[in-house]
Amino acid sequence: MFGLSSKKSKKTNTKTLCSIPEFVQTMKESSDFVSYNVLEDETLCLFYYKSVVEALIIKQFILTPMKKESEHIQNISDLCNIVSIEDIITSPSIDDIREKLLGGYILVRLKSNSNPDQYALIRAESTVLGTRLYNDTENEYSVIGPKIGFVENLDTNIHLLRRNIVTEQLIFKEVIVG
């Protein structure tokens, strides 16, 4: 089940600037938004939409090096030396985060006792899911409107929706029926 959030608060209004933690908290309302603690003490966390990123890129090129070199990560710029992905944006603005999270980036948060939270964006866009086009359904007829078939697995179908409805107000809720 999915829908556009109709909340009119400052937290969900795309025109109003809010803090990054408030923005992340708003994104957690969607079932396809992932918040992952790389370390048990929650000093290094990843935030992303699983429907627009590639899981293999996250595991192989981001998580594995971060876990191996976690003791060497003192500030967010150290990620550039540890993660072998070229497209890393350190100290992004809230507008960058809004745009890039929906476009296949991962938000990395580094907490430190002495410094404020530091953030970076790492590109992990799914290229496999992005190549699929809509299918015209041949067995469903409608009087008016498009004939778009969502005939693949749930992640692919959510990816298609996120690719065409680019807003953080699109929230997916998993519902167990039966």
Fold topology:
Elements (H helix, E strand, L loop, with lengths): L1 E3 L15 H8 L5 E5 L6 E6 L5 H14 L10 H4 L5 E3 L3 H8 L3 E6 L7 E6 L30 H11 L5 E3 L6
Antiparallel strand pairs: 1-7, 2-3, 3-5, 4-6, 5-6
Q: What would you note in describing this structure?
A:
This protein is of the alpha+beta class and 178 residues long. The chain has a domain at 2-123. The protein has five helices and seven strands; from the N terminus they run βαββααβαββαβ. It has helices at residues 20-27, 55-68, 79-82, 94-101, 154-164, and strands at 2-4, 33-37, 44-49, 88-90, 105-110, 118-123, 170-172. The chain has a five-stranded antiparallel β-sheet with strand order 2-3-5-6-4, with helices on one face. The protein has a two-stranded antiparallel ribbon with strand order 1-7. The protein is globular, with a radius of gyration of 18 Å. This is Spore germination protein.
Keywords summarizing the entry:
178 residues; alpha+beta; 18% strand; globular
What's this, in brief?
The protein is α+β, with helices and mostly antiparallel strands and 178 residues long.
- What string, H for helix and E for strand, traces the elements in order? EHEEHHEHEEHE
Classification by helices and strands: alpha+beta
Based on the structure, what is the oligomeric state of the protein chains? single chain
**Content of β-strand:** 15-25%
Helix content: 25-40%
Mean pLDDT: 79
Q: N-to-C terminal Cα separation, in Å?
A: 15 Å
Low-confidence blocks of residues? 6-15
Radius of gyration: 18 Å
The 3D shape can be described as: globular
Strand order of the largest sheet: 2-3-5-6-4
